[in-house]
Design goal:
By secondary structure, this protein is α+β, with helices and mostly antiparallel strands. The protein has 8 helices and 17 strands. About 25% of the residues lie in helices and about 35% in strands. The chain starts with a helix and ends with a strand.
């Protein structure tokens, strides 16, 4: 043990010096493609520190000891946060480390370490790398990483926790921030496997206004973007999705969905029908959507929706207002002219009750 401690101390001191050099040479944006060699060098030092301690075993492989070493590295530079989590259970040691580089606006890395034998299922003595711990998987995304561990549920293989990792970026606007979520499953004796990712559901990105993690549940509230409607409007159309592990724990599934301000989608459908009816001179559709003849008579020959927030009458939260004014643009010679379209909610849906040009 004394020899191991002496060797580890010497290696750690040299690694600390290398870390100081990298901290001094850090690029302006750690996420940039040009910073890839620097990131690889930094994460390589982190891997070496973790694997040396896991290989030594005993107290040096404990979560507390490794976290202390990580705190020493992070203390040399305020631009990185490092967190360690050891997974309990039978079999070879398994460890998850989160590295957040350059704060919330930077890069977050999930790194999963274990004995390759656990991943390959090789018999004792024939493991890749001689059974020494190694980096088994990693995942990087923009934002600050955060780890949640869900213990195995009844009906799943023993010691098969779910690792839920959230990457949260800087706020896009008040109350909304980009989010990437991943779920990993790592049974003892097997390789870690990513079983779910929010990027598959939201390939264009997810901006979350609420994220809640409970036992075996992830709840995310986010705005639904509608064509012709600006983002961040008051009473925006939102979904609140709750995800849970499927039976057997092989993936996450949508358990339930709450829709808030669904009236916005209904209004946008009515607006789209009105614009199409104006475009093709569909008198029957116009009469249905705008029952008053004097209103239909004022409508210009060409209308397009304007991406602006509506004006609404007072109403209870998440309930439909009685009157809503939407913005549109009409062709007026060579220059567009803004119009206001006033809608009222009746038993049959939304109806156009007034339309008038906006004075400028």
């Amino acid at each position: 043990m004394a020899l191991l401690l002496a060797a580890a101390t010497a290696g750690a001191a040299d690694r600390l010096d290398q870390f100081r050099v990298l901290a001094a040479e850090r690029p302006p944006d750690a996420r940039a493609e040009s910073a890839l060699p620097w990131r690889e060098a930094l994460l390589g030092l982190l891997d070496a520190e973790i694997l040396d301690n896991l290989t030594a075993g005993g107290p040096m492989a404990s979560e507390g000891f490794i976290q202390e070493r990580l705190d020493t590295l992070a203390g040399e530079w305020g631009g990185i946060a490092l967190g360690m989590h050891r997974l309990a259970g039978a079999g070879p040691a398994r460890a998850a480390v989160l590295a957040g580089i350059d704060g919330a606006a930077g890069l977050g890395s999930l790194r999963l370490y274990g004995t390759p034998a656990a991943a390959a299922g090789a018999p004792p003595g024939r493991e890749p790398g001689g059974g020494r711990p190694g980096l088994l998987a990693s995942s990087e995304h923009d934002g600050r990483p955060e780890l949640h561990v869900w213990p195995a549920e009844r009906g799943t293989p023993a010691s098969a926790p779910t690792l839920l990792v959230l990457w949260t970026g800087p706020a896009l606007r008040p109350g909304s921030a980009p989010l990437v979520a991943e779920a990993w499953r790592w049974p003892a004796g097997s390789a870690p496997a990513r079983i779910w990712s929010s990027t598959a559901l939201f390939p264009e990105g997810l901006a979350a206004s609420e994220v809640r993690v409970a036992r075996q549940e992830l709840a995310v509230r986010y705005e639904i973007r509608l064509p012709g409607l600006a983002a961040g409007c008051q009473d925006s159309l939102e979904h609140r999705d709750v995800f849970r592990p499927a039976p057997g724990g092989e993936r996450l599934v949508l358990a339930r969905r709450e829709v808030r301000n669904g009236w916005r989608r209904e209004l946008q459908v009515a607006l789209g029908r009105l614009l199409r009816a104006v475009e093709v001179s569909d008198g029957r559709a116009l009469a249905q959507l705008a029952p008053r003849p004097e209103v239909r008579g004022r409508l210009p020959k060409a209308l397009t929706a304007e991406p602006a927030c509506e004006t609404t009458t007072a109403h209870a939260p998440h309930e439909a207002p009685r009157v809503v004014v939407t913005a549109a643009t009409a062709a007026d010679g060579e220059r567009p002219r803004p119009w206001s379209l006033e809608w009222s909610r009746v038993a049959g849906g939304w109806r156009l009750t007034d339309a008038y040009p906006v004075l400028k």
